[in-house]
Amino acid sequence: MTSAHLHHAALDAIGQEIVDGARPVGSVLTLADLEQRFTVSRTVAREIMRILESLGMVRSRRRVGITIRPRSSWNVLDPLVVGWRLRGEEHDRVLLDVTELRAALQPMAAELAARNATVEQRERLIELADEIVRTSRHPERTDELAEAELAFHMLLLRATANELFAGFSGVVRLVERLDGPQSPEPGLVWAERYRRIAAAVAAGDGETARIASRAQVAQGLAGMTARVGERPSIAEPPSSDHWSV
Fold first, then answer.
1. What is residue 167's three-state secondary structure?
2. Running DSSP on this structure, what letter comes out for residue 238?
3. 200: Cα separation from own chain's centroid
4. At what angle do helices 79-86 and 163-179 cross, to 10 degrees?
5. Which of 166, 173, 210, 234 is most buried per CB count within 10 Å?
6. Rounded to the nearest 5 degrees, what angle is found at the Cα of 113, between the Cα atoms of 155 and 104?
7. Rounded to an integer, what distance in angstroms lies between the CA atom of residue 180 and that of residue 227?
8. Sign of the C-alpha dihedral, residues 103, 236, 8, 45?
9. What backbone torsions phi and psi does residue 181 show, to the nearest 5 degrees?
């Protein structure tokens, strides 16, 4: 296994353990144990800790060591954290959280895109909407449909010309890659909603784009709420005064 693969595997394993609560809040990690467990260099072990610290998941302090931080400190919008949570027991909660956030953001994104999108972006949204409608008529082409839907949502967020909206596209990509598109009723009716949004953006009609997008996300949120059922509660991982690798 290459150094890059070792680095990724070690980071993935530790991050997943923190999210799953296998490493309680307040427990201590050591670089030496990381080196031994994953057969990585001290430089790689430090880089892993640097990434986890940037995510708010650990804190490195002199004479204390590297300690696990509570969930309230995590950067929960970072795709790494979202991915680890999706693979754990919080899967349903994360899906609902992301869907609710999209329901709040996407109508405004559509309005901003109508105002700020480039000519090329407007044309591409129309093309993608047409592709979604075409592929929705063929149940066997689910992979193509998923790719077109993802491309549409990613482009819509980028077309806002707002860096924070564009940054959220990483979370959207991850969720749809791991769990599939959040369409509650794949088919022509759902697909036609993309055409209405794209046409409004292309025409520079922000109000219509917002209204059309709001109808789409409301339907998606209703479908996800029905799928998940009762909202899971937030539970902090258990704490520990000391827990070594």
1. helix
2. P
3. 26
4. 20
5. 210
6. 85
7. 14
8. positive
9. -65, 150
Q: Is 0.85 surpassed by the pTM of this model?
A: no
Q: What residues contact 230, with CB distance under 8 A and at least 6 apart? A: none
Q: 38: which residues sit within 8 A by CB, 6+ positions away?
A: 6, 9, 10, 13, 45
How far apart CA 43 and CA 53 sit, in angstroms, is: 15
DSSP, collapsed to helix, strand or coil, labels residue 26 as coil
Nearest by Cα to 41 from 80, 2, 14? 2
Q: How far is CA 28 from CA 43, 49, 64, 173, 178, in A?
A: 19, 12, 8, 33, 31
- Reading the block at residue 58, the tokens are 């650990």
Q: What angle do CA 224, 73, 22 make, to 5 degrees?
A: 75
pLDDT in tens, 32-91: 888 999 999 999 999 999 999 999 999 988 877 899 999 999 999 999 999 999 998 888
DSSP characters over 32-100: HHHHHHHT--HHHHHHHHHHHHHTTSEEEETTTEEEEPPGGGS-TTSHHHHHHHHTSTTHHHHHHHHHH
